[in-house]
Every structure is written in C-alpha cells, then in structure tokens.
Design goal:
The protein is mainly β. It folds into three domains: about 140 residues, Jelly Rolls; about 120 residues, Distorted Sandwich (Glucose Permease (Domain IIA)), CATH 2.70.70; about 70 residues, Roll (SH3 type barrels), CATH 2.30.30. Helix content is about 15%, strand content about 40%. It contains four helices and 27 strands. Strands 9, 12, 13, 14, 15, 16, 17, 18, 19 and 20 form a ten-stranded antiparallel β-sheet that branches. The radius of gyration is 27 Å and the shape is elongated. The termini are far apart. About 30% of the residues are buried.
Length: about 375
C-alpha cells in the first residue's frame, strides 16, 4: 500500500501563506513609497528578469530620441502584440501651465507607462511617472524649458489607442466672462517711448466687470497709488506668487482677507495711468521680480479623438516615391533627419492628421507625410 505524503498539504499552506504575506507586505509598503506603474510591473518578472530587461532597454534607448511636437498634440494608432513600440516626444513647457499626457485605450486589460524628463543641458532628469492603474499623468513645470515624454505599452499589448498631450493654465481667468480674445496687450510691450516694458498683460472689457481671484490666497495689500491706480495684491500661499490687479474702478476685497478661486476682488476700470485708455485689467505676477503672466491664464484647446483620423491601418508601409524625407516632427518646418528611397519599408507607430509616426528598419523613429507611403502588401 502506497504511503500518503503528510508533508504536501502543510507545505502548500506554507507556500500560499508566504505568497499572500509578500503580496500584503507590498501593498502596505506601496502606500508609503508610492511606486510607479513601471516599478510595480517589474515585480511580475522576478522569474523572467531577462524579458523585463529587454523591454526596459527599449525605454532607456528611447531617451536618446529627439522627436519634437507642438502642443496640443494627439496621435492615434494600434498597440500590436507582435511588435515593439515606444513613443517619445520633446515638448516645450512653460512655468504657469499644467501639462497632461493621457493614453486612451479601447481595452482596459493593457497597461501603459508614462514618464516625464526635463532636459538639463545634455543630460535628462527624470521627474514623474504615472501611478499603477493610471493611464495619464499631470505635471506643473517649475521651470520653462524642454521636456521629454516617453510612453510605452506593456509587453504584448493589443489595443487601439489615442495619445493626447495638452496643457492648461494653472490659474483661473481673472475677469468674469472673458478669455483669450480679451487679452490685447502683452508682456514685454514697450511703454513711455521705450523707457520701460510692460510687466503684465491687459485684459479689456466693459467698466464694472468683476475681477476675481485667479488662485486661492490672501489679499496682502489694497489701495489707490501710482501707475496702477486702484489695485489689489493677492499672495498665493505663504511663499507663492504675488498677483497684481491694477486700474480697478473700485476695490471690493479687504486687506488680510482669505479668498478662494473666483471670489470677487474688484471691478474693472481705468484708474491710475490708464485714464486715457478704455477700461481694462492690468494683470501681473511677481516672484522675485515680474514674470510673464500669460501662460498662467491662456487657454489652449485639446485635440479631440473624433477629430483625428488614421490614414492607414497597416502595421507596415513602403516608400512609393523616388525619395522621401523623414522629419523630426509632424510638419515640413521640422528638420530633415534622414532620406529614404523607393521601396524602403517602415513600421507604423501612429498617425497625426496627414503625418505618420514611423520606425525605420534601423529602429530610428521619425515622421513622414502620408502621401509618400503605401501599405506593404
């Protein structure tokens, strides 16, 4: 008679308990350390580290890409399980904006990994990564400059996608019922025959229109003095920006008052040195000196998914003209980075209107106009 192995059940219980305990410990630790989606994904490859290393090597290599796009930008395409795909974009971001990178997918089963770097000379500084279960990331740049966005799907992802890169102002617009079109005098414009420059923007509207807090803060000063006439100063937090509202017809806020976004501070007028001009708000921001307030309040429209169509649904394309230029970005104004000849093949990564985001047989990523290629039969 065969003896029963009395050790199998206790051993199984021990193994399961160990796995459960490890998983529970990770969850507790993650609450404190807040690992990125990429870091959590790596845990799944403890038994297959070489697979993750190959995938992550593509991410490291993509940091050398220099493709450029202007905001807002959008791209659609298809993550394909049989192909290696990664998306890199250089963008110019300004202090005063909130940048968002988002990936919409038709399937909830496939993850994407989004990373933001800041260009510092010839080096890249990693700033942000998306969190697990998140398909977007938002970031408010402290410094105006060049930033690099890298988007990578998980291994064997298979789903249509829509990538959106956009920015919005960090502040609420300071004049009720108005927007970009009401801004008619800008930062840096000359004043007094060139003796000084305009340290703000002017927002024109009818007299008596409410002027509101662009951000939560404390009214640090009010009064009627100097070039600004009737004015309100709003301090954002303890060490934040000082926001200047000038040429008011009347002041409503009181010094020392705590205000929330949208609270009325005063009414538009033309006091001070604006007596000979139509009513408007002079809006300025100071932080160790004047800074350009336009990015803080200027709205930019996002590209909607339904407004972006794909020129091709094929994974591979072929050059159909005698020669074709590859560009650093999706327009002829971007630098030419390579020239291909007829019948050269390309892998399609995505589409941006009539421009295609592609990868060459030498694994170089670039943009090409859709009129220069055809599906590879």
């Amino acid at each position: 008679m065969k003896k029963k192995n009395h050790f199998k059940i206790p051993l199984l219980i021990l193994v399961l308990s160990s796995v459960f305990a490890c998983s529970k410990l990770n969850k507790v630790t993650d609450v404190i350390t807040k690992p990125s989606a990429r870091e959590v994904y790596e845990r799944e490859f403890k038994e297959r580290p070489a697979v993750f290393s190959r995938w992550n090597a593509e991410f490291i290599q993509a940091q050398n890409d220099s493709l450029q796009v202007n905001l807002p930008y959008a791209e659609n395409g298809h993550f394909t399980s049989q192909l290696s795909q990664i998306y890199t974009y250089e963008v110019s971001l300004q202090n005063g904006t909130i940048f968002t990178a988002k990936v919409e997918k038709d399937s909830l089963d496939h993850r994407v990994f989004i990373d933001i770097f800041q260009q510092q000379g010839s080096a890249l500084k990693h700033l942000e990564s998306n969190q697990p279960e998140e398909n977007s990331i938002s970031f408010q740049p402290i410094q105006t400059g060049t930033y690099k966005i890298i988007i990578q799907p998980e291994i064997a992802a298979q789903t249509p996608f829509f990538i959106s890169l956009s920015e919005k102002p960090a502040y609420h617009f300071p004049v009720v019922g108005k927007g970009n079109a009401a801004i008619q005098s800008f930062w840096g414009n000359t004043r007094d025959g060139g003796k000084r420059s305009h340290e703000g923007i002017d927002i024109f509207t009818k007299r008596g229109t409410p002027v509101v807090a662009a951000v939560d803060g404390r009214v640090s000063r009010t009064g009627n003095r100097g070039l600004g006439g009737k004015q309100v100063w709003l301090r954002e937090g303890v060490f934040g920006n000082s926001i200047y509202y000038a040429h008011l017809d009347s002041i409503i806020a009181q010094q020392g008052q705590q205000v929330k976004v949208g609270d009325t501070l005063g009414l538009v007028g033309n006091t001070g040195n604006a007596r000979t001009t139509p009513p408007h708000l002079h809006f300025g921001i100071y932080r160790g000196g004047a800074i350009n307030p336009l990015p803080f309040v200027f709205n930019t429209e996002k590209i909607q998914r339904e407004n972006l169509t794909s020129a091709f649904a094929d994974n591979f394309l072929v050059i159909k003209s005698a020669k074709a230029n590859l560009r650093q970005g999706p327009d002829t104004s971007y630098d030419k980075i390579e020239e291909l000849k007829k019948n050269d093949t390309l892998q399609l990564l995505g589409s941006h209107h009539s421009w295609l985001h592609i990868q060459t047989s030498a694994n170089k990523r670039a943009y090409i106009h859709s009129s220069l290629v055809a599906p590879l039969n």
